What we know:
Largest sheet: 5 strands, mixed
Amino acid sequence: MPMEAAPLKRFWPAPAAAALSLVVYLQTLCPTVYVEGSGELIGATYLLGTPHPTGYPLFCLLGRLIAVLLPLSSPALEVNAASAFTGALAVGAVAALLVQRGCLAWISMGAALAFAFSSTFWSQVVVAEVYGLSTLAAAGVMCLGLGAADRAGGRDERWLVLTAYVAGLGVTTHLNHLLILPGLVGVLAWRWYSHGGLRAGTLARRLPKLMTAAALGYSLILYLPLRNGRGSGFHWGDLDTPRQLWDHVNGALYRSAFFSLPLEGILLNAQRLWQQFSTEFSPLLIPVVAWGIWVAARTDRFAAVVVGSGVALNLFLATSYHRDPNGLGVFFLPAFLGAAIFLGFGLDSLARRLTAAVASENAPRLVGLLAALVVLTGNAATADRSGNRIAHTYGSDILAGLPPRAILITEGDTASYVLDYLWRVEGMRPDVLLYNRMGRGTDLLSRDERSRSPGNEARVRWQRERELIESGEEGDGTATDAGARPVYYLIAREMPTRGFRFVPAGLCYRVEPVQERREGGAAADPGSDDAGDGGEKAGRSRRGAVAAASIDLSAALERDLFRDPWVRKIQANYWFMRGEQLNFQGSTAAAEAAFDSAAALAFDSRSTRYNIALKFYKNNKFEKAKEHLKAAVALDPTMPGTERLAAAIKRRQGRHYRK
């Protein structure tokens, strides 16, 4: 089935698929910052910083170049456009791969467009994310590697060197690129062996060239230590030592999350994978994907091995990965890419049979376009981000609610990086000082302080928080003038000093001395383990002083757009903080209604449901607390803190009953 040397004109589906997908992506592009890590990546790309592990230097450089060449209305829109551009190129690469493997032109374009409009991939390339570029690298290295295997028994040195270079470069785009390489190396080694290419002399001559090419591609990673700490861009952390750099580029931060799940968690991830895959393209195309696996295994064993092994490794690793279930889907993207390639094989087989049956050359065109159209119409509504400004509005509302010269300490992924983008890149509220509690992007500690206390940064940072609160002023001379600065926290988690409390103030919490409390007392928390945003450990007063800032619920009431779990979680935070304010004022019934509204919006957020369970627990509404806790456990049975809260509820129920 693969062609020995397909003429270039046969590859017209590649630019056609790329152009068509780019048009759709630009029509559905998010106009501003989006949720989770979008703001961080924009800040690191637009201002040439160093983003979260594994660093993504190629995206930073390419995104910055596109931002310079396409000056649009905002930096976020420019970086989002860069993501769309790389995603469109990835679609073109998928089409080129299918043409190379001998699929009909219209089928190649149709299958590539089906992948372009698949729900997960489409949703990731219309916001600032690295998955378009990493998919381009994956499809590109498969195309080059299989092409090298086809040519002269895998002995064409030019193709081999180019494949090695792209393989090394691809690892800088995302570590999931490594999943493709075992199968590809195995196929090339087999081709060398079967054509005498593994003789000692040949191997000794080739291997240094290939290793040099791969190292040259991977050398782009040097951007990270060269740029780290320089300029005003977002910098995830220090990369001053070889160990720090190595831990960053190999994702050491996430290593403990792999293979940590019990069997129940693995099966739950597998169930989520199947639910996602059933709608990723279209339920109608699932049998075609299965048929394509069979066709590839019979007609193109090399492609079947490379693609199939990559899919198998991806499924093995991703199903054993413990993280927020709502963020798990993107880690299956290599498997969905493989499914799209097998879809191409399946559609090609069906189109050839249909052509023979009806004696019409239009059959491949009909089959390819119909497959693309089915996926496009099925996913258009859920992938469209063109009107979604909720994350930007949420961050703006938080900053607007702060008094002049406030200090805001952020934590968690939901809003921290949105705020960082607005403050760092758009220059919103320059009078405010923004610090990340984990030191991501903005740190209470200076670079020198971190270098003097390796391994103790968290303890020293905690001490600095305490000093900041107790002194009431910024202590390192960066403030424009002397005097007290009110301190606010995005999440009311563990007050670092005695004698102060968290008081809900708008969409965050103000730190105030305890002696200002009028009545009431904070209920004891059942434990120190919590996982999420929204104020798990806030002290409250049933009839205390009225919180100063009001909450505009307009963004929380927005319904005229698709809201993924992250957007709904942001909307739920409006209601959650409304509940916190009402609770503080003593309006318990109204507060609990607000908490229920938050749960109804973020029904599939483990952290939101856990936090709401905690609030009902503190209000002695134990059955409601159990209801929300049960929902959190159903979403993630291994979520930290749930067993402790369940035990605390049982103890309190017993105590309440005895009374």
